Amino acid sequence: MIRKLAGCVREYKRASILTPIFVTMEVVMEVVIPLLMAKLIDWGIDQGDMAMIVKIGLILVLATIISLAFGVLSGKYAAVASAGFAKNLRKDMYARVQGFSFSNIDRFSTSSIVTRLTTDVTNVQNAFQMIIRVAVRAPVMLIFSLGMAFSVNPSLSLIFLAAIPMLGIGLYLVATHAHPIFERVFKTYDRLNTVVQENLRGIRVVKSYVREDHERAKFGGVSESIYQDFSRAEKLLALNSPLMQFSMYACMLLISWFGARLIVGSSMTTGELMSLISYATQILSSLMMLSMVFVMITISRASAERIVEILNEESDLKDSEQPVGPVKDGSIVFRDVSFGYQGKNGQLCLEHINLTIPAGSTVGIIGGTGSAKTTLVQLIPRLYDATCGSVFVGGEDVRRYELHTLRNAVSMVLQKNELFSGTIKENLRWGREDATDEELVQACRVAQADEFIRSFPNGYDTYIEQGGANVSGGQKQRLCIARALLKRPKILILDDSTSAVDTATDAKIRQAFREQLPDTTKLIIAQRISSIQDADLILVMDGGRIQQMGTHDELMEHSEVYREVYTSQMKGGDEDDA
User: Fold this and answer.
1) Which of 46, 194, 426, 495 could crosslink 111 through cysteines, CB 3.0-4.6 Å?
2) 422-423 and 463-464 beta bridge pairing
3) Sign of the C-alpha dihedral, residues 207, 209, 210, 212?
């Protein structure tokens, strides 16, 4: 885990190395200062030597300035190193997520990934800063101060050695009991983010059903769980403070008691006692800093483990070691394909699919909810890999193509496709970055989107809010279709992507497809039979199998299910949908 995280330091190694160097130099100067104070008292003040007072005083001022300079430099480089480390962590995690297959993403919830990219990275960033600064400062100060204390008075310095084991045992017990609680807390954070995301995404539904109280109660329950766990963990960590305070005051009292007796017996000077008390403060403060480091590491350890889970996750989809060239055409073949989201050990949602689709043909897919229509088409661009059997595109097994090559040849429009913040032009150019304005307009005409775009005051420069909040469902679907067309795909998949479009516009879109995309293979998943009635081939799916296939006329004659659906829609269901 540490090696994986350390790999994210990269260009900030210099700052990460300079920070502990400057910290060490700062500590050296801080340790020298009490010794100079002792000399000032014993050689200057007690002897009444003004020249010595001025000389040692100037050295003290210089040492203080140098210590301050090293402290500023260590703080500066620690901030640069930790912020850069966090930036690289987020960058690497985000890049890894972009390479995930759908099955990888299924293993991590969206809210969990967001929490890992934000809260967890912040925790690790804070821990990293403490490690390169405080975790260096504390042991260096402890060692140097102990050495100086023993050089002043070895017998009194033994008091510190008695306190260190007691503190070490206490810190270990606190850390081991607090870590499992923090692991549980961050998982609860994932649940909290899920609640917030669901609420914001479905806020219209919440308000229309007047469920605000229910949502507040749900959020409050998760939030209360986090509060209870954090309180329990913080109570454990709070034991550090009284433990440290007890040790510090006990050591100070013992040093003062025995030191005063030694001064009375002329075995020790006042300056030596003052320096020893200063070293006692430094030793105990370094122990206090170590306890803070332990606390931060305890909190961040759970976060680090969650981050490394993302960084270690390997995509289920691998490019072929000897990939084939570009996709030749839009022909599709399913050869005894079965698929389950949990692999061979899970329940199969597609079973023994055998299907041949010539290039340029139009295929309609219809079936009830849960019949695996979407799952079927997701195997074509390798959003998932078939559990058994093979899928061929352009005469080649899809696993032989580079993912980039295959997916550039396939455009997929979902029922709930996403628009991103930016202008309409910027959203359309997701299909092809170098598309000209004329090509944008042509794609929008085919998708029946040009007319409503021109009705906006800013036309194609109209700004789209996050998620397409300022356009209607039908407008959003048509923009997504236009975006897909700009790729000039060999295969176009429409997954119920005209459900929010009226039947007249739907018919115009299909007519434009026939005229403008004769060589593109078109797969249309639809609930309305009118959307696929003219297809070259219609698949009727049920329970993960192709129950029957054929043209509209053939299915009307041979498929009772298809005939019932058609009859019910022709009686008025289609008009209701419109």
Assistant:
1) 194
2) antiparallel
3) negative
C-alpha distances (whole Å) from 369 to each of 38, 373, 394 are: 85, 9, 30
Spatial distance between the Cα atoms of 461 and 480, rounded to a whole number of angstroms: 16
- Residue labelled with tokens 């001025």: 54
Instruction: Return the structure tokens found at 235.
Output: 């109570």
Q: Helices (H), strands (E): how many in the chain?
A: 22, 12
Give the H or E element holding residue 386: none
The predicted model scores a pTM of 0.68
Integer Cα distance of 522 and 531 in angstroms: 12
Q: What is the DSSP letter of 393?
A: E
The residues near 432 (Cβ < 8 Å, ≥ 6 apart) are 439, 486, 487, 488
d(CA 506, CA 481): 12
Are the beta carbons of 468 and 419 closer than 8 angstroms? Answer: yes
- DSSP bridge partners of 391: 334
- Is residue 543 pLDDT above 90, yes or no? no
Contact of 338 with 351, CB cutoff 8 Å: yes
Is pLDDT larger for residue 357 or for residue 153?
357
Q: Report whether 287 contacts 164 (CB < 8 A).
A: yes
> What is the C-alpha to C-alpha distance for residues 307 and 128, in angstroms, rounded to an integer?
14
Spatial CA neighbour of 334 closest among 317, 351, 309, 312? 351
Pairwise CA distance, residues 426 & 436, whole Å? 12
Residue-wise pLDDT for 27-46, tens only, equals 888 888 877 877 787 777 77
